[in-house]
Amino acid sequence: MMSYLDFERPIAELEARVAELRETANGGKIDVGQEVHRLEVKARKLLRDTYAKLTPWQKAQVARHPERPHFKEYVAGIAEDFMPLAGDRAFADDHAIIGGLARIDGRKVMLMGHEKGNDTASRLKHNFGMAKPEGYRKAIRLMELADRFGLPVVSLVDTPGAFPGVQAEERGQAEAIARATEKCLELGVPMVATIVGEGGSGGAVAIAAANKVLMFEHAIYSVISPEGCASILWRTADKASDAAEAMRITARHLEELKVIDRVVKEPLGGAHRAPDKAIDTLKSAIVEELDGLSSLSRDELIAQRRAKYLAIS
Amino acid sequence: MSWIDKVRNGIPFLPKRQAEDQLWHKCKKCDAMVFLREWEGNAHVCPRCDFHDRIGVKERFELLFDDGKWEELPSPEVREDPLKFRDTKKYTDRMKQARAKTQRKDALINAKGKIDGRPVVVGVQDFAFMGGSMGIAVGAAVVAGLRAAIEAKRPYILFTAAGGARMQEGILSLMQMPKTTVALQEMKDAGLPYIVVLTDPTTGGVTASYAMLGDVQIAEPGALIGFAGQRVIEQTIREKLPEGFQRAEYLLEHGMIDMVVHRHALKEKLAGLVGYLTGNKDAA
Ligand SMILES: [Zn+2]
């Protein structure tokens, strides 16, 4: 059963009514066909209207929807023959960032991204997508490998942020993020990043300083979470909605600010309503971007990335 | 009556308040009352407990450059308030306040000068200006400082101090992380040294970009340096943080920086470093 977000309650009620009527029809002899159809049309219209004008704060909730596809679902849908590679060779294997060799429509790539997990056990295993220094150092290692063997890098970003913890600080969280960002910018191979869910601050940018940055329609990308911003500037996390509005965290805004290059459309009602469709759309977008970059030389790729970030002001 | 009151009352020609505000400085760490003139003459370091208090841009340049002479570089022109941001206050009003307080356009100032005869470009991030926070102007100033160094073939020494990124510029402040990193790569290409001096406090997105990418990393004693804020970490782990956590000495112990240097020894140390890292025949 799908979970609904707070603002989806009217839609939930209509859809529940439809389900209820269907059940009655199955059991009895009453013809509910017309009524079901009428309600379905109404629910769909409501869904379309709601999602056409989601506020930034509502988008944040969609981006964090527990049933939204995560890295593992994308890999299953996008890649053939995924071969995960583990470890930073110094401390540990961080499950908050997964990466490895893959083929996307026959193209060989290094595919990596944050994994949040989708139930209690897996969320704990993947630390809710909050990577530690070893996660970023694994990403650096994989990017170096890709660079040496001429494999484009494809990254999928979905993190509330880098993990704030004592050991993470001890092992150099800041340095690890800084070096990962630096590595993205040094690559002589194409890099395509997509913000698929939450793009949380430095923990996101560390694997997203790419030649092309894509973003799902209802994903968010921000310097700090709306709650964090609100608790600092408004002195209460209750103002998260205002903070989300003020910070400009949506794909449309970020495209206007030239921070991202392309908005990827989601199925009606968000990626979680039709994950296969969302994954397919993303796959085609990534393939297009990879092909667009394939003719550039190493120097051109580096120069393009440098020019792009120097121009952001 | 405490000894301080006795001293104060012993000065007949100054009213009480004026005496307290203008003559004495109370050390934030050990509470010692130090003559303001002594405090300033000691580079804002407590003569009793060695606490390194924050220091202004001008004072920093004075301590560093030969004969107290330097040339300030102009602050780059940047777009202001790109998001038309407003929280409980307008961002433009916060900027006006910060400018009135510091007499600076934004939080990072570059200058050219000499340290023990060696030409360098120095950037100083000013915590007094909106917590030193990194927005478009700070990012542009880091780029400008590095490019001035490249043009003049000099090392770039950057004194960092910031609570992090400037939230009022939203994602554009986050984008200063890759942007400044690109300028650091140009510096690397030019074969010139980039030396970071981490001062209190350096946290958040600033630490997670140019503040941790120095060829040599120095920190001032006791400086708070880290990625995540201590309150956020405490909320996450639900326990007290270890003694000295995220302080300069802690980072040194964990291999994150090269050295902790007393403010009084900084100029000599920097001059020595610049001497080692420049003028070598086989530099890349
Ligand atoms: Zn003291």
From TrEMBL, chain B:
PROSITE patterns: COA_CT_NTER. Zn(2+) binds at C27, C30, C46, C49. GO terms for molecular function: acetyl-CoA carboxylase activity; ATP binding; carboxyl- or carbamoyltransferase activity; zinc ion binding. Its cofactor is Zn(2+). Residues 23-284 form the CoA carboxyltransferase N-terminal domain. It comes from the Bacteria. GO terms for cellular component: acetate CoA-transferase complex. It is found in: Cytoplasm. One of its GO terms (biological process) is malonyl-CoA biosynthetic process. Gene3D superfamilies: 2-enoyl-CoA Hydratase, Chain A, domain 1 (3.90.226.10). A zinc finger (C4-type) spans 27-49. Keywords: ATP-binding, Cytoplasm, Fatty acid biosynthesis, Fatty acid metabolism, Ligase, Lipid biosynthesis, Lipid metabolism, Metal-binding, Nucleotide-binding, Transferase, Zinc, Zinc-finger. Pfam families: Carboxyl_trans, Zn_ribbon_ACC. Pathway: Lipid metabolism; malonyl-CoA biosynthesis; malonyl-CoA from acetyl-CoA: step 1/1. It catalyses: N(6)-carboxybiotinyl-L-lysyl-[protein] + acetyl-CoA = N(6)-biotinyl-L-lysyl-[protein] + malonyl-CoA. Its EC number is 2.1.3.15. Binds 1 zinc ion per subunit. HAMAP family: AcetylCoA_CT_beta. PANTHER family: ACETYL-COENZYME A CARBOXYLASE CARBOXYL TRANSFERASE SUBUNIT BETA, CHLOROPLASTIC. Acetyl-CoA carboxylase is a heterohexamer composed of biotin carboxyl carrier protein (AccB), biotin carboxylase (AccC) and two subunits each of ACCase subunit alpha (AccA) and ACCase subunit beta (AccD). Component of the acetyl coenzyme A carboxylase (ACC) complex. Biotin carboxylase (BC) catalyzes the carboxylation of biotin on its carrier protein (BCCP) and then the CO(2) group is transferred by the transcarboxylase to acetyl-CoA to form malonyl-CoA. Belongs to the AccD/PCCB family. This is Acetyl-coenzyme A carboxylase carboxyl transferase subunit beta. The lineage of its organism: Bacteria, Pseudomonadati, Pseudomonadota, Alphaproteobacteria, Sphingomonadales. The gene is accD.
